[in-house]
Amino acid sequence: MAAVAGLAMLLLIAPTAQAQLDNQVKPQASKQYRISKQKEPIRQKQESKQDQAGKQKLALVTKPAEVAGKKPHQLLLQVNSNEPAMMNLALNNATNVAQYYRNLGEDVSIEVVTFGPGLHMLRDDTSPVKARIEALAMSNPEISFKACGNTQANMSKAENKDISLIPQATIVKSGVVRVIELQEQGWSYVKL
């Protein structure tokens, strides 16, 4: 009789215990216990979504784009013309590319390199797009402006005065060499 009672208990308890381990059957002990067990999977799902979001944010912060599986986007725009339309086209392209990748949540670096007559784009005294560059630089830190030092020196000699550049411009020794170096580093190149 004791053996039958033990066997009956084993048959009643063992499947319930195994099912609980497999999360297939909920215990039927009390209403309060059933409610708390029903809420738990929902809470686990919420936590796991939050954990996943946190891990994704951490990956974006701690991993460079290449490590995260995405090649970083790098665009080189060359301006060597003193035509305001060409300068505005360069700024339009830079703005559109920056916005495109911002909307995707991806990083992009954009460098506008000026030389020859294009240096007027970054000259403090002759730039037809000076105000636009100032506004653009405030809202798009991924866009930088480089000015050819050789061109600046040649213009200074020709005009017999110092050539001042807008504050957003950084001087590189040679604009053409800068274009070559960025291309060798894998930057995408657009000549306007």
Lay out the secondary structure.
Elements: H1 2-22, H2 31-62, E1 73-79, H3 84-104, E2 108-114, H4 130-139, E3 143-148, H5 149-159, E4 169-172, H6 175-184, E5 188-191
Structural class, by secondary structure, is alpha/beta
Radius of gyration from the CA trace?
32 Å
Spatial order of the strands forming the largest sheet:
4-3-2-1-5
**Total E-strand runs:** 5
Order of helices and strands: HHEHEHEHEHE
Instruction: Give the termini separation.
Output: 96 Å
* Unreliable segments of 5+ consecutive residues: 1-47, 53-67
Largest sheet: 5 strands, parallel
Q: What characteristic shape results from the CA principal axes?
A: globular
Q: Could you please describe the fold and organization of this structure?
A:
With about 190 residues, the protein is an alpha/beta fold. About 55% of the residues lie in helices and about 15% in strands. It has helices at about 1-20, 30-60, 85-105, 130-140, 150-160, 175-185; strands at about 75-80, 110-115, 145-150, 170, 190. The model is unreliable at about 1-45 and about 55-65 (pLDDT under 50).
